[in-house]
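Schema walk-through. Below, the input block comes first and the output block second. Nothing else is stored per chain. Lengths vary across the set, and this one has 326 residues.
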Amino acid sequence: MHSIKSILKAVRNFLFSGLNKEFLIFLFFLALSGIFWLMMTLNETTEREFNIPVQLTGVPRNAVITGELPDTVHITVRDKGFTLVTYAYGGKILPLTFRFANYADEETGTGQIPMADVQKQVASQLYGSTKLISIKPAKYDFFFTYGSSKRVPVVFRGKITTSKSYYLAHTEFLPSTVTVYANKKQLDQLESVEIEPFNMRNLQDTIHRSVPIKKIRGMKIVPQMVRLAVYPDVLTEESVEVPVTAINMPDNMVLRTFPSKVAVRFTIGASLFRTIKPSQFKVVVDYNDLANNPSDKCRLQLRSVPRSVSKAHLELETVDYLLEQQ
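--- output ---
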């Protein structure tokens, strides 16, 4: 107890010493001048913007809102500072509420709230001295449906480039389809949905990203995010031995080539090479060319290749041949 009294006495002596008395007087007048400045400022007329939440009430349980109302009304008002402080901190301005049944058009699946109704609700919460300068946005509408939906595929939108010696093997989405809620007319015209543009350069490794579906006015998409997987692959040069086939041959003639098989070289992703078979290629000799242009060698033609290969070409363009008559 004695120590506490000693501490209080020391603090009192410090505060009320000659030097500190002058400092306390300075603080008093500083605070007083601040109060006068605040009072003068709050007494001036000024403008301020306020944000008011918007709510759609009384929505039937079987109705799906596919296009929401703007969730906030931005108003600009003019009044004295004292009044504006009341709006900001006094809980004077409440959310705007609009009943679904009063504005919903069952035939079109849309609803529109007139600006006059918005202004009326805003004005009812303001003091008579307050002037309403502006209200934003200028349009308040919503869309709904009673369960009409459709599953559609998700498609890629954007640009992906790979590093040198790589190529883009494929992309996939999880899930690959989404459910879209909208009115029947919109659903009949909808074939797919796109992701927001996705761009990436110099890709080398597989990536997995969550990407948003591009919003469509008047439609509700579930889910709104999908998982995008992008698979690059290393390009490699390979070859296969393909038998030479004769076409347009007379029934009594047989063509023999030397060699009977030729190598076809091509570029393909390393992971896809094991799926390639010689039967997917077709190398031919056209008898009509031999008859029209006799020569010691016959010219080979590469007529068919798998879609997954590129830059396919023959190692030999001509070979020796022999025509036999049966």
